[in-house]
Amino acid sequence: MTMWYAVAHESEIEDDTPFATEAKGTPLALFRIGGAIYALYDLCSHGAARLSDGFVEDGCVECPLHQGLIAIATGEPRSAPITEPVTAYPVRIVDGQVEVEL
Amino acid sequence: MIDEVFNPQELVSTDGSQVAYEVFSSQEIYDLEQERIFRGPVWNFLGLEAEIPNIGDFKSTFVGDTPVVMTRTEDGGLAAWVNRCAHRGAMVCRELRGNATSHNCVYHQWSFDTKGNLLGVPFRRGQKGQAGMPPEFKPSEHNLHQLRVESFRGLVFATFSAETVPLEEYIGTTMGGYIKRVFHKPVEYLGCTRQFANSNWKLYMENVKDPYHASLLHLFHTTFNIFRVGMKAHCETDENHGLHSIIMAIKENQDAEAGADYKEQKIRSYQEGFELEDDSILALIEEFEVVATNHIQPIFPQLVVQQIHNTLVARQLLPKGPDKFELVFHFFGYADDTPELRKLRIKQANLVGAAGYISMEDTEATELVQRGTVRDGAARSYINMAKHQDGQTDTLITEKLIRSFWTGYRNLMGEVATGAGA
Question: Residues 6 or more apart from A65 whose CB is under 8 A from it?
Answer without folding.
Answer: A44, A46, A47, A48, A49, B109, B111, B120, B122, B123
